[in-house]
């Protein structure tokens, strides 16, 4: 019998070549309408998974929970069952004025301020996406008319440390566009395991706005943030179509 991975609770026979990686399991409900022949696969801890077709291309969506540690487990176990392309579709806080709610950040490198990527490899190893998959994302976002910014994100492990504001100001001063918690771990584990990865982040907090207030209004269906989420889902799905067409 095919080996079932201990955390995602999936085996090789259930895999698709491509996977969307949202943090939040609830985001799968908003991905499913874009797919046909949708199957619910598994739900263990933070790892919920579905599979379907997007324009005939088999795609999974697997939630990774909050933080690099659980995201790295997802990348590991998905690569072991044969997934070759993974795109994180997450939310982020902007670190630059002018990046508005619902704008997408297409990450071309991540500051490794998380613990998980450091457990894997020395911090001199770069947290970068697959170049071809990033280009596929950039072209897809442009074709869809999404508001995008291409640049660096900072992946961190906690919202609530005492120096949070100073740390954000420091990285903003270095030209970093936004903060999330998983991109660095996804890029580093993907790079080490030979998986093509990318990360698209939907802005849910503008720079220097009140964090908890905006995260609380994130589920408002009418909001720019929800349109941003729809755009990141479609951008990633279209990028997988391009990746599939190029045979990579
Ligand atoms: O919206 P998701 O993908 O969960 O991503 C962001 O939201 C969570 C924090 O609120 C962290 O996981 C962060 O990276
Ligand atoms: O500011 C934010 C918002 C979402 N996710 C983060 O990691 N930071």
Automatic annotation (TrEMBL):
<keyword id="KW-0808">Transferase</keyword>
<protein>
    <recommendedName>
        <fullName>Uridine phosphorylase</fullName>
        <ecNumber>2.4.2.3</ecNumber>
    </recommendedName>
</protein>
<dbReference type="GO" id="GO:0004850">
    <property type="term" value="F:uridine phosphorylase activity"/>
</dbReference>
<dbReference type="GO" id="GO:0005829">
    <property type="term" value="C:cytosol"/>
</dbReference>
<dbReference type="Pfam" id="PF01048">
    <property type="entry name" value="PNP_UDP_1"/>
</dbReference>
<keyword id="KW-0328">Glycosyltransferase</keyword>
<dbReference type="InterPro" id="IPR000845">
    <property type="entry name" value="Nucleoside_phosphorylase_d"/>
</dbReference>
<dbReference type="InterPro" id="IPR018016">
    <property type="entry name" value="Nucleoside_phosphorylase_CS"/>
</dbReference>
<dbReference type="GO" id="GO:0009164">
    <property type="term" value="P:nucleoside catabolic process"/>
</dbReference>
<dbReference type="InterPro" id="IPR035994">
    <property type="entry name" value="Nucleoside_phosphorylase_sf"/>
</dbReference>
<feature type="domain" description="Nucleoside phosphorylase">
    <location>
        <begin position="18"/>
        <end position="201"/>
    </location>
</feature>
<comment type="similarity">
    <text>Belongs to the PNP/UDP phosphorylase family.</text>
</comment>
